[in-house]
Amino acid sequence: MWSEVDVVQRTGSTNSDLVARAGEGRAAEGAVLVAEEQTAGRGRLDRQWSAPPRSGLFFSVLLTPGEVPVARWGWLPLLTGVAVATGLSRAAGVDTALKWPNDLLVTVGGEERKAGGILAERAGDGGVVIGVGINVSLKADELPVPTAGSLGLAGAVSTDRDPLLRGVLRSLEEWYGKWRAAGGDAGACGLQEAYVAGCATLGREVRAELPGDRAVVGEAVAVDGDGRLVLATGEGVQEPVGAGDIVHLRPA
């Protein structure tokens, strides 16, 4: 399904560039934009994502799931997380876990570290751009923060970014095809089950920092049919969280 793959040496943000192309009608579904270096990479809540040139995978893809109800598009970042984790497991031999909703975790020295993230943005009429950033070969002294990690530090059998990218794109095409064929029903296509199986957030005490300066503390007990994280609070209430920052408070 990948209709075109463009590689640029340097850009601000592959997501911003591909969103702009889609908005101008210069990109179709399956367009992939890869950068050797991002100078203004963004994560959720417009956080900065930086890494040395050629040290990671920084890419965005354009999807147009027109036949899937928009209400189910919230699964796309989670679907991408499952696809990335599956692809890296095959291509790099690294065990990865998913922190809800869109962080990729690896284990370095017995500690959980964030090695990647996913950002979804609407693009044009009926399009979604999914951006992926993965630290591949960063050494300890190159990490942006001490709590970050990389595939290399996690013991990857390969840090060659070409087969890693190919593996992730194959996996993304496979999962996207299943989800789309099921009309976006994450339960019917096995996506919900796969996400739950790989989610490191479930079973933990977490704090959800929500819009409007509100926070909820509870045990993460489920991911529901809409992709929301369900928290069981101390008040005996099960509260679904659709958007927010999640802080792991204790090990699983």
Automatic annotation (TrEMBL):
Domain BPL/LPL catalytic residues, every copy: 1-180
Gene3D superfamilies reported for this sequence: 2.30.30.100, Bira Bifunctional Protein, Domain 2
GO MF terms, alphabetically ordered: ligase activity
PROSITE patterns: BPL_LPL_CATALYTIC (PS51733)
Superkingdom of this protein's organism: Bacteria
Keyword annotations of the record: Biotin, Ligase
Entry annotated with the keyword Transmembrane helix: no
Catalytic activity, EC: 6.3.4.15
One Pfam family this sequence matches: BPL_LplA_LipB
NCBIfam families for this protein: birA_ligase (TIGR00121)
Keyword presence, Ligase: yes
InterPro entries found in the cross-reference section: aa-tRNA-synth_II/BPL/LPL, Biotin_CoA_COase_ligase, BPL_C, BPL_LPL_catalytic
Protein name: biotin--[biotin carboxyl-carrier protein] ligase
SUPFAM superfamilies on file: Class II aaRS and biotin synthetases
Cleavable signal peptide: none
